[in-house]
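pinning this so it doesn't scroll away 📌
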Amino acid sequence: MGRGKRGLLAAAVTVVCAVTVLAVPGTAFASAPAGPADPTPAPSASATPAPAVTPAPVPDAELEKVRARLDGLYHDAAVATDAYNAAEEKTRKQSVQLARLEKRTDTARRKLAELKDQAGAAARAQYRDSGMPPMARFLLSDNPERFADGAGTLLNGARATKKLIAETDRVERELKRDTDDAAARWKKLERDRKDKAAARKTVQARIKDAEKLESRLEKKEKERLAELERQAARKAQTAWLDTGVLKKKADTAGATATATSAAARAVAFATAQLGKPYVWGAEGPDSFDCSGLTSQAWADAGTPIPRTSQEQWRQLSHVDVTEMRPGDLIIYFADATHVGMYVGDGKIIHAPRPGRTVTVAGAGTMPILGVVRPDA
């Protein structure tokens, strides 16, 4: 039952109580004793406050619906967060590439200016001696030695001119290519920024909806809701363990179940973040979202991995769940929108959702899509 319905019920009960009191004879309107008029009205039975009515508790079935709705809202927020993180990563890469292109185009422009200066100097040199081009002087020479010298000079000059023209053409083509590339990347950067803004708006809206829904609950209802969440997590973890996955893991993994030195460093980093708040789009050092935590943990271990859980699932090596070892990443939900780091003994460290902190949880408390290994 919603809060509004409980309020209506309480109001209805209050009205019923008041009507009952008014119906009792000789109470509400009894005459006062004869005597001087008293400006102070006599107290009546109707002034007696009605007994407080305790609202009926919300049934667990209704709270389960609330929990399902919250899960849906936070999942939508996680989807939008992954989209935001992906757009953020793209804008970062585009910005770096644009900076490189700008540096290259500046260098090309300076080089082109130098080549044009050289071409102008060569053209001026051709007419320096009485305005006669080198070819004319060469053909009119009647001195054999000067003829030979002129032939060599002319040949060298032709080669230099040809090289100068070719180099100028090459630099001009390179400059045009880089300029066109930069223009295309600017357009893509703008698209990525718009995608990021749209994703941010969606995240904020879903989180606001979830917070509004939770704010309608009384304190005791919130406590019961939290207990229902814990019960659901324990049930899911028990069902996962009952599949014998850890026993299969022990039977098949053998020595591979031991974490590598890099994986151990990643686990140590994740462990050090316990208790820090979840903030969507955050990658430390004071707060994290789910993939921000895993990507930073592996970066700290010297192995950069993709920023988002979806790209981690797409790009990293997949391993069977029975072969996972500490440091591996467990990807959750069919759309790969959540990730946690396996730390052994059937547990993960993850950043759950807004309003929560980095924590240890059962690896089977959410639907597992698969496992990836950053240092395969």
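📌 and the second one:
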Amino acid sequence: MTDTTIAPADASARPAVREIGIIMNGVSGRMGYRQHLVRSILAIRDQGGIVLPDGTKVTVKPLLVGRSEAKLADLAAKHDIEDYTTDLDAALADPRWEIYADFLVTKARSAALRKAIAAGKTIYTEKPTAETAAEALELAKLAREAGVKTGVVHDKLYLPGLQKLKRLIDSGFFGRILSVRGEFGYWVFEGDWQPAQRPSWNYRAEDGGGIIVDMFPHWNYVMENLFGEVKSVYAQAAVHIADRWDENGEHYTATAEDAAYGIFELDGDIVAQINSSWTVRVNRDELVEFHVDGTHGSAVVGLFGAKIQHRNATPKPVWNPDLADDHDYDADWAEVPTNDVFQNGFRQQWEEFLTSYVEGTDYEFNLLSGARGVLLAEAGLESSREGRKVELPTLSLD
């Protein structure tokens, strides 16, 4: 072949740059806008895309979908986005858009996911994936039958603190893990004298609200991916504050729990206790903290920080209520160095999902994983309602 000879094109070769169209439904909401649109998809777009292992690049092009054309137009103009529509059916029928991403309120999600599956779109969705475990499992089965790739948001696993915790676990630091204690929450104002930080539907069961439905799916994937599969749950839900005021300043009575106290049995005889509350004033370093105890060491991790205490550095407290204890227990803990560069967790998972989509690899955080999270929430509500421990069955697509 001479210097001027051009080799024939390889028809199977991947293009150097591939643009993926993404339908983004529900971007006017808090999470859909802030975390998924601005900090994930637009961040990926503005950096020029993602470089894949083989050196090719993937870029993204969003299509904003919602009910209010005016809101969509404002968002599109603000962020230099060309495409938006109020017609979801038309968007799903358009082959330019390969992925359907769902950030709707829970009650609206299942119907939209069914449409996306029927249209053969790849799916990436917030959790919970449905209002019931049966429906969540049905969606997972429908997706498998349709040959549709799916992904469910597991953002807490990508928090810097939990990534440090994962590193500790993988290194064998803890020895045998004995227990996990989690504290999550903050004070959400009632809405009368200060505006509430969360939408009012969060406090109405009839609208899909409640902290168990919101947080137990998170705790499920955190526990099963870091410590072990959840075998049972005992939970106590509470409506601590019934009188609240909505976005228009109108009084309403909360019908969904604003706090939940859960005890979970995990594989390996690990016991986890996690409190979730929107009615707690924070007295901890971060809004979420997990205290993990093992035979060889312990750790306390939050959103970003992580500190450890090895068994060789463990003090020997003696209980004596008659004498003041002046020992500085906080000083017995050592900070875990960061050592890595952690980016926004939502963006990191988006990049991993897009890479898996293009490469055609299996993706473990799929609709079946999402169904397990819905199952735990459902079992938690059942436990609180009936005052008993509830065993969790193993979900399967077969």
